[in-house]
Amino acid sequence: MKFMKTILSGIQPSGRPHIGNYFGMMKQMIDMQKEALVYALIVDYHALNSIQDAEKMREFTRDVVVDYLALGFDAEKNVLFKQSDVQEHTELAWIFDTITTMPYLMRGHAYKDAEAKGKEVSVGTFNYPMLMAADILLYSPDIIPVGQDQKQHVEFTRDTAEKFNRIYGETFKLPESLVIEDLQTVPGVDGRKMSKSYNNYISLFAEDSEIEEKVMGIVTDSSGERPENVYAIHRLLKSEEELKPIYEENIGSYKKLKEMLIEDLKAFIAPMREKRAAIAGDENRVREVLEKGAERAREVAAQKMQEVKKAIGVI
Ligand code: TYM
After folding, report:
1. pTM for this structure?
2. How far is the CA of 22 from the centre of ligand 1 (A)?
3. Looking at residue 173, what is its pLDDT?
4. Most buried by CB count within 10 Å: which residue of 71, 126, 131, 252?
């Protein structure tokens, strides 16, 4: 028990998760939960940059809890909690702001993308990586399972920890990100990164009709031997060896391959969707899980914050 690794990752409550979130992050959390202490964080304050509607915020937050429970997350052994329940996250983020420069944060991919699109970037979006660094460093985790798009944020976290340690003395442990090689970026139905904002996703708990519609809509190009966008999603569910004969037998027959993918996705999603439906109405369970999670997280975060406050000389 003593040498158990600590795993931490977060997800924004910004709508229902898709299979990209699952294979990029949630699956790793579930797979590791027996032999590690897992902190599963719902980053509602991060999501405030895009969700500015109280009802939606409540609903989406509650949804993430139900999603995790439906996937089999053990909230008794591990810690499922929301960021806003632990005030140390925003408190530590401020302290990190004071040791971080604007040019450094301007290197952030998320910031650069928003700038390139001509969007007016909120201060919250600009400082996003500092709140994420606080999320992570309060709990001294060993590993952060994330998709490729979050790797830079974990690098920023490491840099920030190093910088703090250099200025104020050894305080934070440097975490490693875990990006599963094959699944760095799960592609969407148009071949770009699967993302809520591109509307190219397949929901993790999709109804059969959504699966059919989305898969039939996968963009295929006729130049290659196999439809890469179909194959890339299929690869999430089956090994290369299993897929090889199927794709060889059906060269050129994209419709057939799509139908096979539909069957495999249905078989994969249906049991999880049913489990989710059975839990979804249980408001009490959701509340209890979050209360318990907050209590356990607060204890660890408060202790780390005491160390930080001593280090910077405010106590
Ligand atoms: P978020 O909410 O955008 O996404 C949650 C997780 O899903 C992964 N992901 C993907 N992985 C593979 N392929 C895809 N197409 C795909 N789309 C999303 C993301 O990489 C992520 O791991 N900043 C984070 C949340 C966060 C966090 C943290 C993560 C806040 N604090 C502390 C780890 C540790 C985010 O916006 O993830």
Report:
1. 0.96
2. 10
3. 94
4. 131
